[in-house]
Write a structure and sequence with these properties.
With 432 residues, the chain is an alpha/beta fold. It has a domain at 71-105 and 218-401: Rossmann fold. It is 42% helix and 15% strand. It has 17 helices and 13 strands. The protein has a six-stranded mixed sheet. α4 packs across α9 (217-238). The longest helix has 22 residues, at 217-238. The chain is globular, with a radius of gyration of 20 Å. Bound molecules: pyridoxal-5'-phosphate. The site of pyridoxal-5'-phosphate (PLP) has 17 residues, from α10. Pyridoxal-5'-phosphate binds next to α10.
Amino acid sequence: MNYRSTVGHAPATDLAGALRAGLAPDGGLYVPDHLPSIAVETLADSTDLSETATTLLAPFFLGSELEDQLPEICREALDLPLPLVEFEPGRAWILELFHGPTAAFKDFAARFLAACMARLRAESDPAQTVLVATSGDTGGAVAAAFHRRPGFRVVILYPDGKVSARQAHQLGAFGDNVHTYRVKGNFDDCQRLVKHALNDQDLAHKMALTSANSISIGRLLPQISYYAHASIALQVKCHEKVDVIVPTGNLGNALACILAREMGLPIGEIVLATNANPTLEEYFSGRDYRGRAGIETLANAMDVGDPSNFERLAWFYRDRDLRSAGISAISVDDDAIGHCIRRVYAQSDMAICPHTACAIEALYHRRQAGNDNPHLVAATAHPAKFENVVEPLVGRTVVPPPALDELLQRPSRATELAPSFQSLGTALLALD
Ligand SMILES: *Cc1c(COP(=O)(O)O)cnc(C)c1O
């Protein structure tokens, strides 16, 4: 399988080349040059996610040095619980993607990427520094995935005071090869610092810097597999395709669902559920695409005004009309998120996180409009991770799942960092 850049100037490469580079040298994003189609029967006997992923992802690994190691990578990275919880009898199910070590769906992708990168590393390579800016969830997932891995260290930058208390504790609780900084600024400041550092040849070389952000093709691929696994399980139950609703920020998770459908899996319409950031809803309702700065909402892991994977989505649909492709978008404001969390709790005794609430709210809208299709709703984080939002709305404490609880019981440490490149450079060079 060849990978090319969405910009179109960089030479094609195999998967290993695309993983090592992260971003293509012409500034574009790597995309597989074609999408393999999959006969659903070949997946019907898979008993678990890692088996599904091994079959589904094999064509993407063809011809790369990781080809033979795919089964092992899937077993190591994707061996996580994946419950499918009935939400409306026989009509809607919630795919709980938050049973990994850091209680958000990003664990699947971060663990897969880490498993690949560890196998691409030569024994003699200098230790790599994975530098990651986070608004809360990515940092933890990447830290957990690389924690105590020989040959890697992780540096996390998060905006001080802008993540939940539990997220902050979690981010500082790893220790060992994970170094956590709370930046006196916002998420954009953290991202700017990471970009600046990666672009600084001297620092990037000295620290063997690499990133693990959501534009890596190694994070996109594994996410296709859980939509494949769930849509096949639901086809057995309801004998039709399911419509899928995905909480959406940078469009990584939802793009994976779109690719699953393109590959032939039994998925009908796909709904991108965003928070109050209106870029995608505007675009899919017929207006021009207009990227802008993100606005802060209760679903803060989706505070994105210019989704980075839109470029990939547009590339896949370059010869077709993306606005008539069975994809729609709905923007859900903070009031509606709050109402939805209360309503779901009152009706089903189930606490949901603010991101998942955007998707459930989209389901309610569709039902109200008379849509009776079977639906799959992706749940992206455990509600206990957003206790500051969820607990006052449901009126009780939300107990963290065991893996998150284990981190919360550990001591936590984050070093304060001024939002300047110089401070970051000094901090990085002082690491042992
Ligand atoms: C990152 C994140 C999202 C957004 O996912 P994208 O792939 O960026 O669209 C949604 N919900 C939660 C809980 C997240 O952490």
